[in-house]
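I am sending you the entry underneath: sequence plus fold tokens. Let me know what the token row says about the fold:
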Amino acid sequence: MKKINLFKITVNMFGLLAVLAVLTLFSTVLAFGGTVIYALTGAVIQSDPVTVEGVKEGSPELDKNYISKKVTQMKPAATPLDTIMRQIPNQVDCKSFVSEYYAVDSRPFFDTVNTAYATSDDGQLVADLKVNNISMWSEDDTAMFYGVTGSDGLDLVCFIISKNVSNQTIKIQPLNGEAGSGATDGEMILPVAGIPKDTRIVRCGACKHELDAQTSPYAIIPVKAENFLQIFMAQVEESTFQKIHEKEVDWGFSDYEAQNIYDMRATMEFSFLFGVKSKFSDNTNAKERYTTGGAVRYITKSLEYGTGGADRTIDNATFVDWNQSIFQGNSGSDTRILFGGDGLMANLMKVDTVLKQIEAKSTEVVYGIRFNKIETNHGVLLFKRHPMLSLAGWSEKGIVLDLNYIEKHTFKPMATRKLSLKESGQRNVDAVVIEETTGLILRYPDTHAIITPAT
């Protein structure tokens, strides 16, 4: 006997009833005339063919406009110094924030000041400074103020204590400010000369406290020196609903993580170049912090070009003199590297000696970075345009480094750490912290140099 499938019959009956219900509803809708009728579950187009225009009016999100599925990540530049420092053999493990050694002598990345800062009374320990792009700043950032002189004669560097989005201000504390007097005697104050409007502010690495888990830094006889190792940190978060939400492009947590790692490395690059060695307690909660000293704070040799004013001429004689000063009188390597800003690189390309070897396509790859190679009687100079120098206001300046006399000292290598914010009931997000505690050490300062236009 043939078996009767009751389940199948029941499903078919419900399907027929559903079709009849839809037809009944459609007949009722026709009574309203040729208009678009909106309901809680959709939109109805009556008496007209279904067109793109009609669908756009009734359900704007139904037909998606064409969107490229490839998301192009626009990055201003690579980080050549950081890349080199991660690969050089001179890697030193440290067990302290202070690294002592013996040496012989020697999110956008910049903002501008909206309203000038002027000192008052006996000077200020901190100040609220109005800027033009408040969104790029975070608490615990460090910032270099190009052209504003600190107590060391170089650009002022400040710690960002906090920010006020509504007022467009950042609260700054000087790291290389001036000595106070009167009511501020024994304290470090912001420059008495003030900070002019439109001053360029370069965002350097974040400076974290050791308990922070999240974030929103010439002599024959060797002389003992030191640098501090800075806690650099970035944090990636993606809400649970954002994670499962349908997206028009393939963009997820790993992409956010990659972007944050790049941003962290870029700000570390600025700190390796321009940071101020400082051990301090922030004025809000008295937490002790360390910032690492950048290369420009340790280099003692300076080379100039041009005759001053607007003149930026580099001729063959100047280039020869540079190489003589770079390679002679020290026991450095036969090969040095030169990172230059846009302006300096443009002027170098006008030197016959350089241009001829560039046209001959003489290059050399160092730790995966391609440099132009210039051979001279004194030694080999490998030079490369460093776009981040221009972002820091160093377009017409350059830095010469001897890689044999640079070390990377690391307290804690770069690593990622998962935060249990969901489990702890703080936020319904997946979160990862990326952190590294490190600093750059320059030995034998006379083997390095800074190139600047004559004043």
Observations:
- The longest strand covers residues 406-419.
- The chain has nine helices and 25 strands.
